């Protein structure tokens, strides 16, 4: 989802009454970011509190390329990374992931090996249907084992856009919360639904109900589900004991989503690719109707989650997330930069209201000429470039307060440019000097590692024979 999908953020159709109410009862973050313009790396960052370039969720196959975990990816979340649920366990939390995991699908990367106690959902995107010969259909797991495959056992109708998956994920969430409340055990629920990811889907009750097309129907169903989850917490009497945070893992994908207002969308390090809707909710603790200008990042949910559980972040590694509780509970503003990475390159940095681009790229001319456009209808000369442009000696500088659309770079000769860049350069120098990149996990692909025979396939008669191993460098076009 993108920043511009919510009524609370000004979307004119006002189709997200539940999220808007969540915001009016809690705190809206206007300057909240994901750690990457793409799903897998930002999810790895959320769960580890570390930039993808540190936790290994990036590629060095080419410069500044977005990489994720398709079915043929060999890598995944390294054992050396400490995930939020792994740490929360020490404080007695029971952890469940519902929906898309995306941190690798080979056995060693299974979420139950990385701190989660329960899982309902899938390791990969719901692409398909596939023929189970060249490509297997993606499995859906319950805990350790697969219980079916997308399109076979979990239907998505590509013609009508109908699927019941969000309803299934909602029921899973309500049941888990009830169970935890009954056993009086603290819990962490990572509700990682994916209805707004292509192919976009919604259930029958929502199909055709939005002014914004099928994508809007999917947003409405997510909104409705979040309302039901919050109501459930209230009904069970645990809302004042439960911290809820809503956000997204990348900007809206403009192939399926309506325009969002910011420059470009998913895959880019412009605001549309990484600035996210974000709401914190905790009745009785967070003052209702709050608005925060704190620069936030999904990685902060790691540090904030630990803080809520009374735990310290690990001290043997660099953690990029910060504890947001002082911003949420006391209205403090914590000075910190936001780094915008694409693969192995720091493309931009935000410090206060200034954003400096050290590299610009939307996608290649070759991709663009095939109709792949991450900035549809937008062309800011010298900014949304189709060749990778280096600006490291003289970064392009925008003031996001006056120019949130990144259209009017400040003049290099201005005092404002000189003053802002003095400060930003020091922060970037220090970031670069202390950066120790992790071992890249997203370099090698092999068809043999696809979801041919996930655990549990025998019971269902759904085991497929993998082809011979043939590891190759993954190709990441943008
Ligand atoms: C969704 O669930 C309804 C009610 O059980 C069922 O009639 C419908 O066929 C399901 N749709 C899909 C696409 O699975
Ligand atoms: C964007 O505008 C610039 C300058 O006018 C032009 O050179 C470039 O080809 C345009 N890009 C696209 C994708 O149209």
Question: Briefly, what is this?
Answer:
The chain is α+β, with helices and mostly antiparallel strands. The protein has helices at 17-25, 39-48, 52-55, 84-88, 165-182, 213-235, 271-274, 300-308, 325-330, 365-369, 415-434, 457-460, and strands at 27-33, 94-100, 118-122, 139-142, 145-149, 187-192, 244-246, 275-281, 290-292, 296-297, 338-342, 345-351, 354-357, 359-360, 389-390, 396-399, 444-445, 472-473.
Walk me through this protein's architecture:
There is one protein chain. By secondary structure, this protein is an alpha+beta fold. The chain folds into 2 domains: 3-335, Alkaline Phosphatase, subunit A, CATH 3.40.720.10; 345-434, Arylsulfatase, C-terminal domain, CATH 3.30.1120. Helices cover 24% and strands 16% of the residues. The chain contains 12 helices and 18 strands. It has helices spanning 17-25, 39-48, 52-55, 84-88, 165-182, 213-235, 271-274, 300-308, 325-330, 365-369, 415-434, 457-460, and strands spanning 27-33, 94-100, 118-122, 139-142, 145-149, 187-192, 244-246, 275-281, 290-292, 296-297, 338-342, 345-351, 354-357, 359-360, 389-390, 396-399, 444-445, 472-473. Strands 1, 7, 8, 9 and 10 form a 5-stranded mixed β-sheet that branches. It has a 5-stranded mixed β-sheet with strand order 5-4-3-2-6, covered by helices on one side. Strand 4 (139-142) and strand 5 form a beta hairpin. Helix 1 crosses helix 6. It is globular. One 2-acetamido-2-deoxy-beta-D-glucopyranose (NAG) is lined by residues 155, 157, 162-164.
């Amino acid at each position: 989802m993108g920043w511009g999908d919510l009524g609370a953020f000004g979307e004119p159709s006002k189709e997200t009454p539940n999220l808007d109410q969540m915001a009016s009862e809690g705190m809206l973050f206007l300057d909240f970011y994901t750690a990457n313009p793409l799903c897998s790396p930002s999810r790895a960052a959320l769960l580890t509190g570390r930039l993808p370039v540190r936790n290994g969720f990036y590629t060095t196959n080419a410069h500044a390329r977005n990489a994720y975990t398709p079915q043929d990816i060999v890598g995944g979340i390294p054992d050396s990374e400490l995930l939020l649920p792994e740490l929360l366990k020490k404080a007695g939390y029971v952890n469940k992931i519902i929906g898309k995991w995306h941190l690798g699908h080979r056995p060693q990367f299974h979420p139950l090996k990385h701190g989660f106690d329960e899982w309902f959902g899938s390791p990969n995107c719901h692409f398909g249907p596939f023929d189970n010969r060249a490509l297997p259909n993606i499995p859906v797991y319950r805990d350790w084992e697969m219980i079916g495959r997308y399109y076979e056992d979990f239907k998505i109708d590509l013609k009508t856009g109908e699927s019941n998956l969000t309803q299934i994920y909602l029921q899973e969430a309500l049941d888990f919360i009830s169970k935890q409340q009954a056993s009086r055990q603290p819990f962490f629920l990572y509700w990682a639904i994916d209805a707004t990811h292509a192919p976009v889907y919604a259930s029958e009750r929502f199909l055709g109900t939005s002014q914004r097309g099928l994508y809007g129907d999917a947003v409405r169903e997510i909104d409705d589900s979040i309302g039901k989850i919050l109501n459930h917490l209230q009904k069970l009497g645990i809302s004042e004991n439960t911290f809820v945070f809503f956000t997204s893992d990348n900007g809206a994908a403009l192939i399926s989503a309506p325009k969002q207002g910011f420059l470009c969308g998913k895959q880019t390090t412009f605001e549309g690719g990484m600035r996210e809707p974000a709401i914190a909710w905790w009745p009785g603790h967070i003052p209702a109707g709050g608005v925060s200008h704190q620069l936030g990042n999904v990685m902060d949910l790691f540090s904030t989650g630990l803080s809520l559980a009374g735990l310290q972040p690990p001290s043997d590694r660099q953690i990029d997330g910060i504890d947001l509780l002082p911003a949420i509970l006391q209205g403090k503003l914590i000075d910190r930069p936001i780094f915008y990475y694409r693969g192995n390159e720091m493309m931009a940095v935000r410090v206060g209201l200034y954003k400096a681009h050290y590299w610009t790229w939307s996608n290649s001319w070759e991709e663009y000429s095939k109709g792949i456009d991450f900035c549809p209808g937008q062309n800011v000369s010298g900014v949304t470039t189709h060749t990778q442009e280096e600006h490291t000696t003289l970064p392009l500088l925008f003031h996001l307060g006056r120019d949130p659309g990144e259209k009017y770079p400040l003049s290099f000769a201005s005092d404002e440019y000189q003053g802002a860049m003095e400060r930003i350069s020091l922060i970037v120098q220090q970031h670069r000097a202390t950066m120790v990149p992790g071992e890249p996990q997203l370099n090698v692909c092999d068809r043999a590692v696809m979801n041919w025979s996930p655990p549990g396939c025998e019971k269902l008669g759904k085991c497929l024979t993998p082809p011979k191993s043939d590891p190759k460098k993954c190709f990441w076009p943008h």
